[in-house]
Amino acid sequence: NNQIAINRSNDSEASGSVYFSGKGLFRGALLDSLKQISYSTKALTPVLTWYDATPYSAVTSLRLKGKTLHWSHPVATRFSVYAYPKGMKLEQALADPAYLLGVSYGKTFDVSAVSDRKQTTFAVCPMDGFGNEFQATLYNAQ
């Protein structure tokens, strides 16, 4: 955890961590410690900034059916999904990993983990293969 914290504080010198198979190490107390301290929130794969991004259009037809979000998109095959309190600014929610529900590799996402969907704004962003997120589409349950 200390090494990860040092890497994160000096990102100009160490822009991340590299892991090799550690089956013998990554279990028990060490695994629990990493989950609770260094990797306590979800995160997106870092953007590959050296590739030119061609912006994708926003998703369309975003709707909630039961406990599942559904949407359409003609090109993207990966989408980031957020849930944040109604009234919060989108930029603030997208910058805080606490509001990232996860990444979908299809055009649906189970939001049953969100307890009060009527007080929540959902945002879905199409992503390209380089990790770029594009314009969010918002949905507010009634």
**Uncertain segments of ≥5 residues (pLDDT<50)?**
none
N-to-C CA distance: 42 Å
Largest sheet report: 4 strands, antiparallel
Question: What overall geometry do the principal axes of the alpha carbons give?
Answer: globular
Count of runs of 4 or more consecutive helical residues: 3
Main β-sheet, spatial strand arrangement: 4-3-6-7
Mean residue pLDDT = 89
Question: SS-based structural class?
Answer: alpha+beta
Range of helix content: 10-25%
Gyration radius over CA? 17 Å
Number of strands: 7
Please write the string of helix (H) and strand (E) elements: HHEEEHEEEE
Record the SSE blueprint:
Layout: H1 2-9, H2 28-38, E1 60-65, E2 68-72, E3 78-85, H3 90-95, E4 100-104, E5 108-110, E6 120-127, E7 137-140
Antiparallel strand pairs: 1-2, 2-5, 3-4, 3-6, 6-7
Description:
By secondary structure, this protein is an alpha+beta fold. It is 18% helix and 27% strand. The chain is built from three helices and seven strands, in the order ααβββαββββ. Strands 4-3-6-7 form a four-stranded antiparallel sheet. Strands 1-2-5 form a three-stranded antiparallel sheet, with no helix packed on it. A hairpin with a 2-residue loop joins β1 and β2. It starts with a helix and ends with a strand. The mean pLDDT is 89.
In short:
The protein is an alpha+beta fold and 142 residues long. The protein contains three helices and seven strands, in the order ααβββαββββ. The longest helix is centred in the N-terminal third of the chain and has 11 residues, at 28-38.
